[in-house]
Amino acid sequence: SQKIEQNSEALNIQEGKTATLTCNYTNYSPAYLQWYRQDPGRGPVFLLLIRENEKEKRKERLKVTFDTTLKQSLFHITASQPADSATYLCALLEDYKLSFGAGTTVTVRA
Amino acid sequence: GAVVSQHPSWVICKSGTSVKIECRSLDFQATTMFWYRQFPKQSLMLMATSNEGSKATYEQGVEKDKFLINHASLTLSTLTVTSAHPEDSSFYICSASLLGLADTDTQYFGPGTRLTVL
Predict the structure, then answer these.
(1) What pLDDT, on a 0 to 100 scale, did the predictor assign at position B1?
(2) What is the per-residue pLDDT for B105?
(3) Rounded to whole angstroms, how far apart are CA atoms A82 and A107?
(4) In chain B, which residues have their Cβ closer than 8 Å to the Cβ of A99?
(5) Is A98–B107 a contact, with Cβ atoms under 8 angstroms apart?
(6) Residues on chain B touching A103 (C-beta within 8 angstroms)
(7) Per-residue pLDDT tens for B55-79?
(8) What tens digit of pLDDT does each residue of A60-85 get?
(9) Which of A4, A45, B43, B114 suits a disulfide with A102, CB 3.0-4.6 Å?
């Protein structure tokens, strides 16, 4: 089965800066990869989906890239705000089920 | 749209008792619902997949007799933790999908249920 690694457990950044999160997987490239946001004590909320034939996807201040050669997805939060503080999970489809990374907790300092 | 609710949001029970958690899709019909468990600072781990009107498919290592799943309608799935023990204490999250296994399908997650077994 796939091993999904998210670069770091925690990321602390200054408000206004760009946060960059990494998601690496080990085996075959999935048909698509998703990113979710999870706040403490809450279920994940879907943010973005990127397909294997797409290089980049944007939604407001969020940008996701997908490099099947590197087996990696990058998730960027531009012009970060304290309200962006949360844990961000990447997930990919394997055997018709979603497998999640452990997440990266982002803290944006005012 | 695409709202999933869970009830209760938290529950504390004594060891040996059974606890039922409900998962409802409020504004859509969900052909497939998923149950996950999440321990502190860990990722979501899929426990089982359930389709309306059929038996749930459990992941390896998940005891089907301990975690009973019923998906009686297209808007309701229940997870019953039978004879709960302290090691079952966790955050249980359900999700629902509209189309089941379509490659662009998105899962909509419930808010989770915090189970504490004393």
Answers:
(1) 64
(2) 65
(3) 7
(4) 46
(5) yes
(6) 43
(7) 899 999 999 999 999 988 889 999 9
(8) 999 999 998 999 999 999 999 999 99
(9) B43
